[in-house]
Structures are given as C-alpha cells and as structure tokens.
User: Fold these one by one.
Assistant:
Number 1:
Amino acid sequence: MRLTNKVAIVTGAGRGLGKGIALKLAREGAKVVIGDAVERNAHEVAEEIVKVGGSAVAACADVSKRIEVEAMFAAAAAFGPIDILVNNAGINRDGMLHKMSDEAWDKVIAVNLTGAFYCLRLAAQQMRERGYGRIVNIASMSWLGNFGQANYAASKAGIVGLTKTAARELAKKGVTVNAICPGFIDTEMTRGVPQNVWDAMVGKIWAGRVGTPEDVGNVVAFLASDEAAYVTGEVINVSGGMVL
Ligand code: NAI
C-alpha cells in the first residue's frame, strides 16, 4: 500500500489502460477520481473499486473541454488536494498524411495534447502551492513517428515536450512529471487492428506477448509513489522490449 490516502485523478479511466491504472492505484490505497468522457464506464469502474473496499468517484469529463476538466478537478476536491495526476485519455484517427482531414488532425490534438495541457495546468497550480505532486503522462512509442499516424505521433511528441517542460518548471516544488510510452497493449484501441498487423506487432516484442493494462499500471504506481521522488522528466518505454 504505497499510496495510502493519496488523491489521484486518472483521465480516460473508464476502460483499457486507464482502467488498469486506476485499479492499481486504488489497490495501493489511493482515492481515485475516474475521469472519462463515457459516463457509464466511469461509474462502472468507480463501483468496481468501491465494491472491494477501495475509494473512488466517477467524473464524466471530456478532457478536450476546459470547463469539464475544471469540473473534474472540483469533484476531486471532495477527496482532498490532488497528489497524483495521470493523463491517460487518448484517441487515434489514423490515416495517411496526404489524405488526413482537418477533423482527424484537430480531434486527436484536442484530446491527446490540449486535454493533457488543461489537466496539467490545473494540477501544476495546485501542486506547486502544496509542494508535492506526481504527474504521469501516457505518451506512446509513436512519438518518434509512425506510418499513418501523423496526428497521433505529433500529439504524443507534444506530450513528451510538455512532460520535459513541466518537469523543469516543477522540480523544485516537489512535483515530478514523467511520461510512459506503452508499446502494444491489449485494449479496445488495439483490438481493432487486423490480425496480420496484430501478429506482426507481437513478432516485434522480445517478451513474446502483448502488454496488459496491469503492466502499465505497475509502472505508473511506482512513478506515483514517494519512492520515485528523484525520477523526473523521464520517458519510459513499457513495451516488453519492443524497441531495444
Ligand atoms: P481505449 O480506447 O481502450 O480507452 C481510452 C479511454 O479514454 C476510453 O475510456 C475513452 O472513453 C476515454 N476517452 C477518449 N476520449 C476522451 C476524452 N476526450 N476525454 C476523456 N476521456 C476520453 O484506449 P487505450 O488503449 O486504453 O489507451 C489509453 C492511452 O494509452 C491513450 O492515451 C493511448 O494513446 C495510449 N497508448 C495506448 C497503447 C496501446 O497499445 N493500447 C500504446 C501506446 C499508447
């Protein structure tokens, strides 16, 4: 129980990676705000945590809307000041650059990058005042560029830049900011890929299997703990050795 009574916000926690992260933080004793744009999923995850004796509350919030992010932070205040923020909400709208619509570009940047910024800005204001905080941003190995993912790669490269800037600005205030780049993780986002792509991806993973939300949640829990006080501005791959 490394996170007893810490207050955490996890965005996009209604399913997939975010859900795995939220469950892990709750198991470590954190009181977790389950943020998601899909209200029903957020409530289900919060109920799942409460049923086993944990603390959680659902907050329906689309991170690309500043007002909804502010409301999510206000809901978190019921638990107390925020100790941990996990910026996980993310989407993809893949397609070749030369055919990419404005809508596909704008939407991915709005959710993945601007959404993370809205959350980070509020967290930074509160955490620097208290002199404590742990921020973990979920990026992707695609931040280095990926075929068919111009919008997604740009948003995730933006997340890395945001992480390294926030880490510098907040380090002396007791706040760490790190990014995790999951490799190929079994969630609804990846289950949509054709079988041949799935097989090719698994073939690249030295661990010989796809990752699970728990694999990512375990690393988030460490970065969110007091033990990680001297780790900041890092970009950590959690990929079973996909790129070595
Ligand atoms: P997912 O699609 O299974 O789940 C995403 C969750 O975010 C959903 O619950 C969805 O309702 C929520 N969400 C979407 N837009 C939102 C918004 N505007 N505001 C609030 N919540 C919103 O995706 P998955 O796989 O769990 O991905 C989570 C994060 O991990 C994303 O940032 C993604 O880019 C990143 N990632 C995932 C990888 C994978 O292999 N699954 C690999 C690398 C990064």
Number 2:
Amino acid sequence: MSRIQMTTPLVEMDGDEMTRVLWQWIKEELIEPYVDLKTVYFDLGLKHRNETDDAVTREAAQANRKYGVAVKCATITPNAARVKEYDLKEMWKSPNGTIRAILDGTVFRAPIIVSNILPNVRTWEKPITIARHAYGDVYKASEMIIPGPGKAELVFTDARGVEKRTLIHAFDGPGVVQGMHNLCGSIESFARSCFSYALSTGQDLWFSAKDTISKQYDHTFKDIFQEIFEKEYKDDFARAGITYFYTLIDDAVARVMKSKGGFIWACKNYDGDVMSDMISSAFGSLAMMTSVLVSPDGKYEYEAAHGTVQRHYYRYLEGEETSTNSVATIFAWTGALRKRGELDGLQELCAFADRLEKAALSTIEEGIMTKDLALITTTPDPQVKNSLDFIKAVRAHI
Ligand code: NAP
Ligand code: MG
C-alpha cells in the first residue's frame, strides 16, 4: 500500500514522561504506516529545554508561525521539585505560556464524545468548545491588603503626566483591593481567533461577560467583539449559516445547561478557566479533551488537554504495566494532519485523519478501552487494555 504524501511539514513538538512514550507509539503504530510523515522536529523534553536554555521552545514557536500547523506533546512545567529532579539551570517557564505569547492565541478546548460514556448533563449531544482568552484580568492583577481606615483609588498617569483617578472605596475598616487590566489589542486578537475558529469548524459562537455590572471593563470586551464581527466576519458567518451572539454570563450558563451542545462558548480568562473544568468533567474525562491554540492570523497548535501523566510514567520506568489513555494525543495528531490537509488541499490526508479518529472512537464503543474510561463507561465488562495494546487495538480498527 502506498503511503499518503504530504507537501508542507508539520511542526512536531515532542514532550515529557508518559505522553512522550505514547507519542512514539502513536507515530509508529498509527501514523507512519499510513502517512509519509513530514515534520520539522523540536524536542521540548525538559532535559533538552534545559540544555538549550529554553531556546528550543522559542524556535519551535517561531517554526509554528512559519509553517502554520504544529502538534505538541504534553510537557513538564518546572516547579521546585522538577528543578531538583532534572538538575535544572533555571525554573524554566511553561512552554505553553511561551508559545502562547509568541502566537498571541486563544485556546479552544473540546471534549471527545463516545456513545458509551454519557455526559452528566442529559441534553448534551454534541461537544461544547470553550474558547478561553489567555491574557490579563485576575491573572495579571495587583492586589493589596487594606489594614484599616483610608481611601483606595485607581490612578492612571498618561505620558504627559496628567492624572485620571477614580475612587475604589473609602474604607472605615480593614479590607482588600485588586487592580487588573486588559489590552484592546489582546481582546481584538481573542475576538478574531474566535470568529476564525467558528468559521473553520462551522459552529455558532457565543460570547458572554458581565457588562451590566462592569460597564466599562466587560463592556469594552462586548463592544470590541461586536465591532470586529460587523466589520470583518458578518458576511462570512451568513454564508456559512452560523451565528454569533453576545449574552450575559448568567444567561449563558443557564442556556448551556439546557442546550444540545455543538457550539463554541468564548469566555474571559477567569470564566474560561473555571468553565472548561466544568465542561470537561461533565463530559467524562480530562483524558478525552482536545486543545488547540489558534492565533488571530490563523496559525494552529494542537495538543491534548491533560499533562504528562507523571504517576503512570514512574510506574512505566519501574517496568510495571500502565493503562494510559492516548485518545487526546491521537486527536492532537489527527487535528494537525487534517488542518495541514485542508491548507494544502490534500483530501487523502483529511480523510485519513477522519478514519483514525473513527477507529479510536469505535474501539472504545466496542468496549475496548483504558482503565480511566472503564471506570465510567456504560458498557458492561469492558476489555481493559494496557497503554500499547490500546493503541494496537485502534490500529486494528483503521
Ligand atoms: P496530568 O498529567 O494531567 O495527570 C493527572 C492525573 O489525571 C493522572 O495522574 C491520572 O490519574 C489522570 N490522567 C491524566 N491524563 C490521563 C490519561 N491520558 N490517561 C489516564 N489518566 C490520565 O496532570 P499532573 O499530574 O498535574 O501534571 C503532570 C505534569 O504535566 C506536570 O509536570 C505539569 O506541569 C504537566 N502539565 C502539562 C500540560 C501541558 O503540557 N499542556 C498540562 C497540564 C500539566 P491517575 O494517576 O489517578 O490514573
Ligand atoms: Mg483551571
């Protein structure tokens, strides 16, 4: 059988621990036998990040800018314990943070749905994708403990030294204050990423905030979305038969619970953080959640939403059997291959991505799965497979 040819390489970002092990198996068993895989390879494993003073992460992100589509394995974000474990020169920053800063993107997370794992919300039939703004607000805030009576104000000093101020509160006892910000440029990028992603996936887009209470801050988000939609996307949305609408976050939450799914829900940074955990656990499992970073100029980076599955890796190193779920990592590969196929007009490559996804889903739907899913499936007596045997079972379904 001749393998499917590619024209432009994918940017491949290898990673750490158990997911690095799965990465190799997925390539060997599920992709290379069918696709003449072309990639530009970057080793983002922590050892190599340390050896290159993290330059490899920046180079990988630049390559993502250049080629357009990347697939990334989960990576360790170092903490004090990792500095010791890997004898690191520095506590290197989160690779995802570095890549996000270079691509200026928005993260979209969507659950992978199978018929024998039921969502906790009965009406959900299709995935709900969360689009989380990844800059500012409470994640870049300044805070202060107020010890006792006094006046707290917001002060802005412009380039000429002219001050603008507004009272936060006249305290007559102890309390707390917080000052946070966002940038119109970042909100515009967020909006464009959401509109492009809605068009590229053919789904409606909802955006929610709290503009009735936050009449300047949240209202600015609402206005920027509306303006960009009217000017740049309205006609394309009409042609694609999809809609954009803004609603208050309370209303959005109520509607989501009664919806059938199948749309994108754009959220401000904090709302997206909280709501994506709610959506993923209500759909079943973090190991069945895909994640893609989309830049406003249409660059894509696909990955699994979970981490490196450290506990399983240590067992693997001890020679023990593991049953780690590779589905989200398989879908990172199929997402990237399909996007590459779309951009390069390679129908065979897109069709292969569809086939591999169907193979993974039908394997699970026939009752063959890893341990994490066996615990929550409606299939009686599922066949629990170890990490590699599950991948081989998927191959048998291709
Ligand atoms: P994690 O790797 O997502 O794993 C947490 C737990 O969730 C696992 O111990 C396992 O539970 C379960 N789990 C997650 N993915 C699974 C899968 N594919 N199959 C089966 N079970 C799965 O999170 P973590 O342990 O907090 O973080 C480990 C490392 O990953 C950290 O160094 C962190 O920095 C990094 N991380 C990276 C990314 C990324 O690159 N995008 C994201 C998050 C975390 P049981 O042990 O109970 O089976
Ligand atoms: Mg969170």
